C-alpha cells in the first residue's frame, strides 16, 4: 500500500503543477480540511478554485522526499518539496513540507486532510 500512496503523491504533484482540476477532483475528498502556510483552513472547492482561476500557478513542484506510513484504510504522507510559482500575482519560491492524510473511500484513495508549511533553507 505504501507504493500506491507514493504513486498517488506523484499524480497529485503532476495535477498541482499542471492545474489539472479533473485530476485534483479525483484525488481530493469532498470533505477535505487543509491548513495553508498562513494558518487558514481550506476545503476542496477552495483548492480547486485556486487552480481553476489560475490564481495559483506552479512553475516548479519537485518532491525531494516522500515518507509514508500506511494502515489498512488510511495513510499519512510527509512530502518535502521545492516549489515556485505565483499566488494572486505574487511570486514565491522555497522549500515546503506537506503532511497529508489519505483515506480509502469506497474503491479509491483520497486526500482527506493536510497542511503545508515553509521549511527553512
Quick recap:
With 121 residues, the protein is an alpha+beta fold. The chain is 27% helix and 55% strand.
Structural notes for this entry:
The protein has 121 residues and is an alpha+beta fold. The protein has a single domain, classed as Nuclear Transport Factor 2, Chain: A. Helices cover 27% and strands 55% of the residues. It has helices at residues 2-18, 21-27, 44-52, and strands spanning 28-35, 41-42, 56-70, 74-87, 90-105, 108-119. Strands 2-1-6-5-4-3 form a six-stranded mixed sheet. A hairpin with a 5-residue loop joins strand 1 (28-35) and strand 2 (41-42). Helix 1 (2-18) packs antiparallel against helix 2. The model has no long low-confidence stretch (mean pLDDT 95).
How does the SSE layout of this entry go?
Elements (H helix, E strand, L loop, with lengths): L1 H17 L2 H7 E8 L5 E2 L1 H9 L3 E15 L3 E14 L2 E16 L2 E12 L2
Parallel strand pairs: 1-6
Antiparallel strand pairs: 1-2, 3-4, 4-5, 5-6
Class inferred from helices and paired strands: alpha+beta
User: Can you write the helix and strand succession as a string?
Assistant: HHEEHEEEE
User: What value does the average pLDDT take?
Assistant: 95
Uncertain runs: none
Approximately what portion of the residues adopt beta-strand conformation?
over 45%
Can you list the strand order of the major beta sheet?
2-1-6-5-4-3
Task: Find the CATH topology.
Answer: Nuclear Transport Factor 2, Chain: A
Helix content: 25-40%
Give the class-level CATH name: Alpha Beta
Tell me the radius of gyration: 13 Å
Number of domains: 1
Q: State the shape.
A: globular
CATH architecture name: Roll
Distance from N terminus to C terminus (CA atoms, Å) equals: 32 Å
Total number of beta strands: 6
Largest sheet: 6 strands, mixed
Total helical segments: 3
Domain DUF4440: 5-111
InterPro entries: DUF4440, NTF2-like_dom_sf
Protein name: Nuclear transport factor 2 family protein
Pfam family, one: DUF4440
Amino acid at each position: 500500500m505504501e507504493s500506491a500512496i507514493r504513486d498517488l503523491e506523484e499524480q497529485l504533484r503532476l495535477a498541482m503543477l499542471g492545474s489539472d482540476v479533473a485530476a485534483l477532483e479525483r484525488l481530493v475528498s469532498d470533505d477535505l480540511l487543509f491548513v495553508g502556510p498562513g494558518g487558514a483552513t481550506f476545503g476542496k472547492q477552495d483548492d480547486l478554485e485556486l487552480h481553476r482561476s489560475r490564481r495559483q500557478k506552479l512553475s516548479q513542484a519537485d518532491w525531494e522526499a516522500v515518507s509514508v506510513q500506511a494502515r489498512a484504510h488510511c495513510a499519512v504522507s510527509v512530502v518535502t518539496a521545492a516549489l515556485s510559482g505565483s499566488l494572486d500575482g505574487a511570486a514565491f519560491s522555497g522549500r515546503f513540507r506537506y503532511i497529508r492524510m489519505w483515506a480509502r473511500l469506497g474503491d479509491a484513495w483520497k486526500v482527506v486532510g493536510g497542511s503545508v508549511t515553509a521549511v527553512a533553507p
